[in-house]
Amino acid sequence: SIVILDFGSQYTQLIARRVREQNVFSVVLPCTASIEEIRSYHPIGIVLSGGPCSVYDADAPPADPAVLALGYPVLGICYGLQYIVHQLGGKVSSASKREYGHAEVNATTDNPLFAGLPATMTAWMSHGDHAEELPPGFRQIAKTSNAVAGIADPDRNIWAVQFHPEVHHTKQGTALLRNFLFGICKATPDWTPEHFIQSTIAAIREKVGESGHAICALSGGVDSSVAAVLVHRAIGDRLTCVFVNNGVLRRNEFFKVQDTMRDKLGLNLVAVDASGRFLAKLAGVTDPETKRKIIGNEFISVFDDEAARILRESAESTEDGEGANVAWLVQGTLYPDVIESSSVKGPSQTIKSHHNVGGLPENMKLKLIEPLRDLFKDEVRRIGRDLQMPEEILQRQPFPGPGLAVRILGEVTPERVSLLQDADDIVVTEIKTAGLYQQIWQSFAVLLPVRSVGVAGDQRTYGYTCAIRAVHSEDGMTADWVPLPYEVLKTISSRISNEVHGITRVVYDITSKPPGTIEWE
Ligand code: XMP
């Protein structure tokens, strides 16, 4: 694998994805990882990421410079370059002016890093400090008009660039990374979906054994579905999937998900309609965080009951009655969550308490299977496609665990859920008809408790307001509102105000994140 040491750059995960796009496995470790831990991944090369610090900062991350002497090929990027220069006896200094944005880089192409690339290229820069004197043994292999842009010590196999090859603004970035991977590290491109699927299935079989049982909470979304299908391929119907109707799903979703999971994917599925329980608990509650907590807790309680029953039954069906001792819980944890929890950055402030399906029932002592914990979201889709899962699941826009409850401002009542289900259905249908569904991160309707006066025929009406929200995003952390075509907005607006009795006004949300969040609650 390629080990990427993270010095805190916002682009570190992007480096990992770019390497994997070349079918080479990569892992991200904090830059403070020990040499033993780095070695345990059997690296064929090491990448030092960028980072927000200066090498002279008192709080510059304390990475072990021994990584530069392990004999693995090294590629430093941005701060990574400055770290190499500083550690190996060169000099880093603050530039008189910060280089930020596109820059023209002139490179010498007589070396394996820049081989085959044009001598002049556009690259993305973002740095204040720069290399002033190179360490002994290094030579400059690229420059901009202001600064050193690339250095190399071919004898020690250490390479570094000041720009960011991982961002798409650097036109030759992929070619440069390929040179590092295949030219310098001699990587084999064997990190493929087939390889991942085979090795994951084998590992799950080995873990769960011949008689173990597993349970899984399905949401109908991409992650839990792909995780379930992988485990099902490994242990068949010894996996039971639980799908809970929490009363705030979209129109017909409870039935649609059952059809897909049972009929199309052949999963062993238990569908629990607990909508009454959830809606009863939500009655009279208006505070957003309280709503989220109620749904989260109720979900765990329903799932807990079901899981206990399933495991009891599976134990009874095992001859020695030992089935309950071999219980596993499948979770769709992804690699960004794994990196986040081990990162050098401190815990960030809780803006909203997130609820994901499969919150671990604590008293059950289930052991975890997380088949996707090495994957990024786009890789999960690739795996799903290789598993021949339907596109309607793989391309599904994210849907929050607390469902429509965080899109109904104020109290959640059955009447309001039904109104929002109708409006939401129109939004989704029209966005799909316009061919926009897959390009948009999320598009949905929000029901506001604000009422206004309208007119229908000769009658005065007094109904709710519905807000339409559509955003582009890479990962849900930041988002831009989408300028939907007026024609699409017009159709959505006239359909909702004519067809959904109780909603008399439709407005469009033009807030980006930050400062807004994607969901309204
Ligand atoms: P916000 O509203 O925080 O949402 O900007 C960011 C992304 O997260 C989704 N979201 C959730 N997903 N459980 C989830 O699984 C939750 O409790 C939850 N709350 C928000 C939201 O839809 C958006 O994609």
Automatic annotation (TrEMBL):
This protein's name: GMP synthase [glutamine-hydrolyzing]
Reaction(s) the record says it catalyses: XMP + L-glutamine + ATP + H2O = GMP + L-glutamate + AMP + diphosphate + 2 H(+)
Record EC number: 6.3.5.2
SUPFAM superfamilies reported for this sequence: Adenine nucleotide alpha hydrolases-like, Class I glutamine amidotransferase-like, GMP synthetase C-terminal dimerisation domain
Gene name for this UniProt entry: guaA
One Pfam family named in its UniProt record: GMP_synt_C
Domain called GMPS ATP-PPase: residue spans: 191-396
Provenance organism: Acidisarcina polymorpha
Keywords (A to Z) from UniProt: ATP-binding, Glutamine amidotransferase, GMP biosynthesis, Ligase, Nucleotide-binding, Purine biosynthesis
A GO term from the CC aspect: cytosol
